[in-house]
Design brief:
- Chains A, B: Pfam families: ADH_Fe_C, Fe-ADH.
- Chains A, B: This is Iron-containing alcohol dehydrogenase.
- Chains A, B: InterPro entries: ADH_Fe/GldA, ADH_Fe_C, ADH_Fe_CS, BDH-like.
- Chains A, B: It comes from Alishewanella maricola.
- The structure is a homodimer.
- Chain A contains 15 helices and eight strands.
- The first copy, chain A, is of the alpha/beta class.
- Chain A has two domains: about 10-175, Rossmann fold, CATH 3.40.50; about 180-380, Dehydroquinate synthase-like, alpha domain (Up-down Bundle), CATH 1.20.1090.10.
- In chain A, the strands form two sheets. Chain A has a six-stranded parallel sheet, sandwiched between helices.
- In chain A, a hairpin with a 4-residue loop joins strand 6 and strand 7.
- Chain A is globular, with a radius of gyration of 21 Å.
- The two termini of chain A are about 35 Å apart.
Chain lengths: ~375, ~375
């Protein structure tokens, strides 16, 4: 196990009817910027529950945060936060709204050009407090310090991290996910699954607590994910998916172990060029990457095959082949195709994707930094 | 899964050479009360590392905190904390020293008689900041808000909990555990194991993340515990035991699930009357309690048998019998006998123990509150 330093101070309020707790979490003296996306929270009663709980507080609303939150939109919210002397930002939505809230919270108190937080990695020294009501289990943003923002004008998708932007609290009510479209449920499950894999499927460093926890999350997502699609009003299933997705990227399972993240980096280019959903790109890239990196990841692939998929064979190559197949079939069972061709992307696109990776300096990805652009090309070829 | 609210803000600094970080964690302006127990930290270099890192700060030492910290001793430390206007308490030791630091931190800022914190459950509204350097993995106190204090004068062993006494930081350097006596290593492993069992071996509430995490900790302790005894200088083994013991009682695995804790309550009476180590009492009570409560715990016992001990039989009663035997043998393999008779305690003692439980109002223990004094008597008879 490597050395690590870990802190996660977000209070999780989990379960049915927890949105009511907002009345205690936010005091009447606090001026609230209520940030949300489209109008879905108005049709599933979440908006009504939130505003009812906040009736004693002064609330300014800002809607229209996009699925990939746009820098320009967030700067308008930042102007309001500054002008109105907002005390706390309440994000109601999925990862994009929460990521957006994090940027606004940091930008509102940033001296200088807030674009530098994203473009130059300028050090965030303070931020407005953030709370959130999660409506889509997927990204883990409700309980970490990470944020991804896109500048639509220049097509730049950039990230920042800061301990200052951990939400102070996150309300996770599984019932608010009942009305999600199946595609979003599937995307969320696959996103969480790949978050775990990026922190697990590397090489062994004798860290059994982290390994067992990661395997526990994978087993949970495999068992519960399909049920979330077939039985959408099942509280226990929704609760288990929601809690697994939070635990998948709240930092815990990645402490003291190597991490990969090449699947995410290659996937980002597919989204940027062809507009696929983030989770679709992960479902395409991960099985191909497992195949390409099968010797580097051999020990963990065998562990994954036996512990997660309960596979048993004498032939280790067959074990690895089947572990990869099972991963692919799981994504497809969730309704997410796993081949570039399934989305109409042909071999000609690969050079374009590789040159974008080079342009973005993605020259040495993965836990061994051995995924060069040439290796990324081979991964994409395996993903056709 | 039940609703829950969870927050754990302790920063964990894990690994070799992390004690040096004290120089950053404590600023030169802070006045430190350095709390420790006997002199063992002076013989294993921990004291030297701590004082070297703190050379810029003003440090007042208070040693002599007992293995079961004594209220009178802690009140002397509290007087010093008040008189010297201490800014932060640094606990260097195991669970007892950290528990003691929590009481001192709360008592120093408590208005009124600090005994009320323990005896009357008086609400702790503030506390001095606490940091700790853990030397004995066992209790989880380094990353939770719980404290147990004993008043030697009256033989009262009382607990309090408060969000104010979570350590701000906890330094976990596995190398400082190399020099622990084998008995303390064994006690720590068994203590952590039973902490997990108290939160796991109840009844199913469809909470697979919590179950898988608990099983992961049990599997880790079963695999690594004996190695910590046979190969005491093995860094990876020490690290895995240390991280498992922290995760066992930092609150995470118990969120949203029923909890038992009857083994602890019955065990406390054995310690109080006969002076056995806490972990010895747990090793005695747990197998007997599993046997006595086998029908109430049936589903979880079967899950434990198959997932933790990898047992396979058609006969479910045999599965449960073997799961209990394996648990007992694990404790004995750690060098901790599991029968009252092994400690010279005979059947006559049982009435005495049961009457103490009655005297302490332990009338309805366990996840179903069905462990009456009569059931406790049967458990103790099975433990002879």
């Amino acid at each position: 196990m490597f050395n690590f330093s870990y802190q996660n101070s977000t209070r999780i309020l989990f379960g049915q009817d927890q949105i009511k707790q907002l009345a205690e979490l936010i005091t009447p003296e606090q001026k609230v910027l209520l940030l949300y996306g489209g109008g879905s929270i108005k049709t599933n009663s979440v908006y009504q529950q939130v505003t009812a709980a906040l009736q004693a507080a002064e609330v300014i609303e800002f809607s229209g945060v996009e699925p990939n939150p746009n820098f320009e939109t967030l700067m308008r919210a930042t102007d309001i936060a500054r002008r109105e002397k907002i005390d706390i930002i309440l994000a109601v939505g999925g990862g994009s709204v929460i990521d957006g809230a994090k940027f606004v919270a940091a930008a509102a108190l940033f001296e200088g050009d807030a674009w530098d937080i994203l473009a130059k990695g300028a050090n965030v020294q303070q931020a407005l407090p953030i709370g959130c009501v999660l409506t889509l289990p997927a990204t883990g943003s409700e309980s970490n310090g990470n944020s991804v923002v896109t500048r639509y004008e220049t097509k730049q998708k950039l990230a920042f991290s800061s301990p200052w932007v951990y939400p102070q609290f996150a309300i996770l009510d599984p019932t608010v996910t009942y009305s999600l479209p199946p595609k979003q449920v599937a995307n969320g499950v696959v996103d969480a699954f790949v978050h775990v894999m990026e922190q697990y499927l590397t090489y062994p460093v004798n860290a059994p607590v982290q390994d067992r926890f990661a395997e526990g999350l994978l087993l949970t997502l495999i068992a519960e994910g399909p049920k979330a699609l077939s039985d959408p009003q099942n509280y226990a299933v929704r609760a288990n998916v929601m809690w697994a997705a939070t635990m998948a990227l709240n930092g815990l399972i990645g402490q003291g172990v190597p991490q990969d993240w090449a699947t995410h980096m290659i996937g980002h280019e597919i989204t940027a060029l062809f507009g696929l959903d983030h989770a679709q790109t992960l479902a395409i890239v991960l099985p191909a990457l497992m195949q390409q990196q099968r010797s580097q990841k051999r020990e963990k692939l065998l562990q994954y095959a036996t512990r997660v998929w309960q596979l048993q064979h004498q032939d280790e190559e067959r074990l690895i082949d089947e572990a990869i197949s099972h991963t692919r079939y799981f994504f497809e069972r969730m309704g997410i195709p796993t081949r570039l061709a399934d989305y109409g992307i042909q071999a000609e696109a690969i050079e374009q994707l590789v040159s974008k990776l080079v342009q973005h300096n993605m020259l040495a990805l993965g836990e061994h930094q051995d995924i060069t652009p040439e290796v990324s090309r081979r991964i994409l070829q395996l993903a056709l």
